[in-house]
Amino acid sequence: MLPIAERVLQGEVRATARLLRAIDDRTGPWLEALAELHPHTGSAYVIGITGNPGAGKSTLTDQLITRYRRQGHRVAVVAVDPTSPFSGGAILGDRIRMQRHALDREVFIRSLATRGNLGGVSRSTADSVRVLDAWGARVILVETVGVGQDEIEVARLAHTTVVVMAPGLGDEVQAIKAGLLEVADVFCVNKADRDGADATVRDLEMMISLGHEIVSAGAHSRGHATGSLDLAHERMRARDGEWLVPIVKTVASRAEGLDALVEAIAKHRAWEETTADGAERAMGRAREELRVIFREMLLDEAHAALAADFEAAAAAVGARATDPYSAARALVKRFRP
């Protein structure tokens, strides 16, 4: 086994940080290290934190670290920040917001730049999660960029995806129509002390109800005090075996509603681990994991083998001597054995 992989398994923070940097830069024996660490992964529970910019995702993540540390778990955070299109750098501001955990040896916070990758996560996010799993984290929080309607990739990585929304940030119905309803396992209406929080909850309830059979009026009582869980959701789930997305109200800046959010995440974990739908979802994650790795390796091999041909084809497309579709088809034919 590579020395750096052995040190990661021993829980060394510096070795883990160095390997994460190598993975992000694609330098050194990073691929071999990932392969050696893979048999030692699978124990961590991955929670995705996504949603609109300004909804309070970082503050909520900070509070979740505290809750899971109180439960005795080693916690890791992968915080993805947007890359500047001009300098290629990133602010990596989430570390600033989580400074109170900096001296806790059982918390590892890793910031990643998107490097132009769409979907709210970095190309290295999944690999970083595997390394932190091998390091010994039992809860891994993946906080996405906050680009709004495009950040759905985290749902293919996380066991539970928490979509964070806040009142006053825009048309919630439009956000749900854009795909967040399908992404969410738990809805968190943060900054629930603001005006409009109840309206945001109602919008979410309306969109959720469109995809499910409505329960009787007697079971449809609501109690949306801060942090409360929706009992109607629970009755529907128990009846038909579906997971109906709960809505939890929080005020993360004051640590209100966090216990209810942790409870909702735990219930989703139990549902996924004990139902056929949950098992199918786990298989879907494995299938997607293989597809992404296969695609990246195939692209790297193709670019390496056809570098000169690619540049020539690009020049021809630029000169309008050919179209990009024909040029790409010709490159594929050259790459085939």
Jot down its keywords:
alpha/beta, Rossmann fold, seven-stranded parallel sheet, 7 strands, 48% helix
Characterization of the model:
The chain folds into two domains: 42-276, P-loop containing nucleotide triphosphate hydrolases (Rossmann fold, 3-Layer(aba) Sandwich); 306-335. It has 13 helices and seven strands. It has helices spanning 3-9, 13-25, 30-37, 57-70, 94-97, 125-135, 172-183, 197-209, 231-240, 258-274, 276-305, 307-318, 324-335, and strands spanning 45-51, 75-81, 107-113, 139-143, 160-165, 186-189, 247-249. A seven-stranded parallel beta sheet has the order 3-2-4-1-5-6-7, sandwiched between helices. Helix 7 (172-183) links the parallel strand 5 and strand 6. Helix 1 crosses helix 2 (13-25), helix 2 packs antiparallel against helix 6 (125-135) and helix 12 (307-318) packs antiparallel against helix 13. The protein is globular and about 60 Å long.
